């Protein structure tokens, strides 16, 4: 960022002369530097995986989860600044409640993503600081199949087949592109996703890391759930074996 | 209260349901409601359930205004979602307490919710141990008067049935089996259709069992014995 310190980066309320909003770009950095988090849409469901650093052994198992239910059908995964992400999840939750009150049916994933994107966008207008977090929203049902959205700190909200954010997003995206994800079922996705997360780790720097997973699909009857720890462990074991095997070939 | 506030209040219910009869048995609760919606004394809609499954542990049945109850279903649904956010399932005791406050609050605003509610369920005493779960029946009247019972009949049933249901209950007490409890309910419904002109002979029996959870009832029908009608001097 060449023009750092030229006076246009102290608040999101002013554009730089070349049309950039530095505060929003810095907020994006909070996501870019956080643990890798990927989401993949497969044949019959979606899997979301986060790589988290466990900074102390004194934390309870799965303290500070990054994935939550918004309602029974939609899952949210937040990356970046944890309290910011947590607050986004709470906002999404409130919106889903309002929807349920007004329409008496669960809020669809696209509407949730849009509502959150609009909320995030308001925070890029210079009133207060932007959110240093991004949020995946995933759901699956028989009519629409799987849907996956990512809302970024700028308020950008795109729908993806698969995506990666965080530290090793480039490597992770390259790995995802090698897969025929449309043909993979959820069980295979879980394994491949674990493999990708572990493959892109920097062995020297990424220590005390833990994988967290969430899924939704035909097998959960369209309900978003946290992936059971046995399944995650099995996927990790499969991935370790697979990665060792690949190393042997090289 | 302002001068014309009465114009904005429900002063009379419109589409209504009549009695609810519920009874505890050894490991759960059975609840009977008929399946008609009355508009005044006319049987306006048939095949409508008056029972709502809240989650695996709680079932709510109601008498009184259908529209108010539909609104309540939404309130309850949102409450369930709020509890899930903290990884908890709302139990019958907590829901009974919540609805008591809600109905009492509304009557204090002179704008009551026109329902008599029967909250039936099993209260989990220990996590992941269904054997220690205890049956629960809680009643809330339209004015927020709430109490817990082992057996209940509401609506016109309160005048007709409570003694009969209690007599049956006392014979076996806590050891009452589900089959016996359902037999009591069926007999009770038969008594209401003889005396309550808005009660219907099509009904359902839902139950909440400690091990099976909530099981919604299937539609059933009772004909009864109408030979007694001959002795009624107004009967044509």
TrEMBL record, chain A:
It is found in: Cytoplasm; Nucleus. Its main location: cytoplasm. Keywords: Cytoplasm, Nucleus, Proteasome. It holds the Pfam family Proteasome. The keyword Phosphoprotein does not apply. GO terms for cellular component: cytoplasm; nucleus; proteasome core complex, alpha-subunit complex. Residues 8-30 form the Proteasome alpha-type subunits domain. One of its GO terms (biological process) is ubiquitin-dependent protein catabolic process. SMART domains: Proteasome_A_N. It comes from the Eukaryota. The 20S proteasome core is composed of 28 subunits that are arranged in four stacked rings, resulting in a barrel-shaped structure. The two end rings are each formed by seven alpha subunits, and the two central rings are each formed by seven beta subunits. The proteasome is a multicatalytic proteinase complex which is characterized by its ability to cleave peptides with Arg, Phe, Tyr, Leu, and Glu adjacent to the leaving group at neutral or slightly basic pH. The proteasome has an ATP-dependent proteolytic activity. Belongs to the peptidase T1A family. This is Proteasome subunit alpha type.
Automatic annotation (TrEMBL), chain B:
Signal peptide: none annotated. GO terms for cellular component: cytoplasm; nucleus; proteasome core complex, beta-subunit complex. Its main location: cytoplasm. It is found in: Cytoplasm; Nucleus. Keywords: Cytoplasm, Nucleus, Proteasome. Pfam families: Proteasome. SUPFAM superfamilies: N-terminal nucleophile aminohydrolases (Ntn hydrolases) (SSF56235). GO terms for biological process: proteolysis involved in protein catabolic process. CDD domains: proteasome_beta_type_4 (cd03760). Non-catalytic component of the proteasome. Belongs to the peptidase T1B family. The 26S proteasome consists of a 20S proteasome core and two 19S regulatory subunits. The 20S proteasome core is composed of 28 subunits that are arranged in four stacked rings, resulting in a barrel-shaped structure. The two end rings are each formed by seven alpha subunits, and the two central rings are each formed by seven beta subunits. The catalytic chamber with the active sites is on the inside of the barrel. This is Proteasome subunit beta. It comes from Caenorhabditis remanei (Caenorhabditis vulgaris). The gene is Cre-pbs-7.
